[in-house]
Design goal:
- With 150 residues, the protein is an alpha+beta fold.
- The protein contains 5 helices and 4 strands, in the order E-H-E-E-H-H-E-H-H.
- It has a 4-stranded antiparallel β-sheet.
Length: 150
């Protein structure tokens, strides 16, 4: 077996999102099948999925997905093992700093798997990513509306 170096690994860009769930809404799990679909189609690869609760006193604790009481036929076992170790205690504390007291949030770290072959080809040719960013969907919609004169 030949050993791959980090330059030879086929890895796409890695992103994260933090989603805070409203205090007054029951978690129903309707987004999870869509996440599974993205994984099944090879668009993303889930690296870490952690749930965090910020108590009313400001303390931040990790929460097991099974404790959240998602309704429906959701198989939470699919997500329970999504942990590479990229997220650590300081990351969870940082997430807690942006949460409202009494809320729960999901922290998803994912690879843009669709881009892995493209990114690998660029690295093999000596290219390197020197900047990246994200434009909020609301900003894109506002700009499109403005361009159409709405």
């Amino acid at each position: 077996m030949t050993e791959q170096t980090s330059d030879e690994l086929v890895v796409g860009p890695v992103d994260y999102i933090v989603v805070e769930f409203a205090k007054d809404r029951e978690l129903d799990g309707t987004a999870f099948p869509l996440l599974v679909d993205l994984v099944d189609r090879g668009i993303i690869r889930v690296l870490d999925l952690e749930f965090v609760r910020k108590d009313d006193d400001g303390s931040v604790v990790g929460v097991e997905i099974a404790e959240l009481g998602f309704g429906g036929d959701l198989d939470v076992a699919l997500f329970a093992e999504a942990a590479t170790g990229l997220l650590d205690a300081p990351d969870i504390e940082e997430v807690g700093s942006v949460l409202e007291p009494g809320t729960v949030a999901a922290v998803l770290v994912y690879e843009n798997h669709w881009a892995a072959p493209f990114a690998t080809a660029l690295r093999r040719n000596g290219a390197e990513l020197v900047a990246s960013g994200r434009i909020a969907a609301e900003d894109v919609l506002a700009a499109l509306d403005a361009a159409e004169g709405k």
